[in-house]
Amino acid sequence: MSDSQQTAPFDYIIFGATGDLMMRKLIPALYNQLRVGHVPEEARIIGSARSKLDNEEYRQRAREALNRFLPDAHKDADLIERFLKKIQYIAIDSTKYESNWGGLKEILAQSPDDRIRVFYYSTAPQLFEAISENLHAHGLITKQSRVVLEKPIGTNSETARAINDGVSRFFEEGQIFRIDHYLGKETVQDIIALRFANPLLQAVWSGEYIKSIQITAAETVGVEGRAAYYDTSGALRDMIQNHLLQVLSLCAMEAPSSLEADAIRDAKVNVLKALRPIPEEAVSAETVRAQYVQGTLNGEKVPGYLEELGEESHTETYAAMRAYVDTPRWKNTPFYIRTAKRSAHKLSEVVVTFKEGTSKLFGGTPGADRLVIRLQPNEGFGLSINVKNPSAAGFGLQRTALDGRFAPADGSLIPDSYERLMLDAVRGYPALFIRRDEVEAAWAWVEPTLNAWAADKAPMEHYAAGTYGPEQARQFTAQTGDQWHEDMAD
């Protein structure tokens, strides 16, 4: 993978630059990369949106965002001012040919012709083609240009193809960087290191020794300011189709031939194409969907999803699926994928449950070993194993955990995922971005479930806010003799 180093000079042009993502993630990410020396002095950041703002008004918004979202340890007043000088703003209605594209062209003309240009689309996906067309029509796309597409790439296979086709009219595939911020998480990348840099784990990483793998992304928050988007998306589209299927691919893929971009992406897409289809008639048995209702979270009563939304809805806030990867390594080994809003705890983790031992030396079957990879929070891993109970009269066993952290060796904070991804786009290194065939394979697998849910072929369950999910989810894993991590005895 690419080394952390200063990039070549670049112009970063971000559409949707007044939005929440820009202020919460993108501006702090670029500032932090300047702070650690990865952004050259010549670099420029050009924000664009429809709002009529001048440079100073926009810089003030960026200053407020840095003060709000940066950790105190990263705030440096002089460096913030130096960073803000790199920022310019231009008001453009990016869907209209006659908008102020000439002004953007004048700004970009101030840089050398061979300067790297990254166009970042932090907008609704239905605008991607129009923005691309206008960039092309005004001669702003160069050989050194890249385009970063924010998720979601469509709402089903058909819309995803339309978006990809629309952007591909103006950018070559090698210029297109489809972002999935989960892949930018250092802890997600650690799955590759744990699997392939440790012979101990590499030797037992298969269905021969592993009983099941579960992948969870749970949040304590509800839909809050995202209600309009979320109700047209739902948990399956929002989290499983992209983020969690990417994590599953890293867990299940064969060793790539190298750490080059296409080698990793080839290995991942092979997993997605090997996912056993879930036909619509099997969806009710192989999935669980649910909405949260009123409950108690951290000692406070919180409203249900329909109360927050203010209207009736059949959108799920909890989704769980059982997946099988039909390869020799994994055949008939269940992978459980789940995501939830208003869960009891905020966490993202991978839980690998190994098969129970067969030794009768200790008067019974030793409990199954278990590896927990904590993606967030408390980033690290725990390996739960059997050891002798020193207080037992005989040779009794007890459980103990070997614990490790993913923290940097120098004691610094783990970088936010957008920091790595934004500069990898500048470097032209696409390993942590999604290739078009990955997008299409993921949609092909989830679409029968989406169709079945839309036709009410699976019941809508309910769970109280502040709990882990509906009771039906426990029954779901019990069908194959499994348990969710929170129900497992240590």
From TrEMBL:
Positions annotated to bind substrate: H181, K185, E219, D238, K341, K346
Domain Glucose-6-phosphate dehydrogenase NAD-binding: 13-189
NCBIfam families assigned to the protein according to its UniProt record, in alphabetical order: zwf (TIGR00871)
Entry annotated with the keyword rRNA processing: no
Pathway(s) the chain acts in: Carbohydrate degradation; pentose phosphate pathway; D-ribulose 5-phosphate from D-glucose 6-phosphate (oxidative stage): step 1/3
Record's catalysed reaction(s): D-glucose 6-phosphate + NADP(+) = 6-phospho-D-glucono-1,5-lactone + NADPH + H(+)
Binding-site positions, NADP(+): R50, K151
Organism of provenance: Saccharibacter floricola DSM 15669
Function as written in the Swiss-Prot or TrEMBL entry: Catalyzes the oxidation of glucose 6-phosphate to 6-phosphogluconolactone.
UniProt name for this protein: Glucose-6-phosphate 1-dehydrogenase
Family: Belongs to the glucose-6-phosphate dehydrogenase family.
